[in-house]
Amino acid sequence: MIGNIKGLMVTLRTMLRSPVTAQYPEMDKRTVLAKRFMGFPALLWDYSVDEPYCTGCMVCIRDCPTQCMSATMQDNLLHTEGKSKRRKIVESFEINLGRCILCGICVDVCNFDAIEMSHEHELSKYKRDGNRVDLPALLDMGKQFQRKIGWQPTQAKNVGATELVDNGAKGVPE
Ligand code: SF4
Ligand code: SF4
Question: In terms of pTM, does the model score above 0.70?
Answer without folding.
Answer: yes
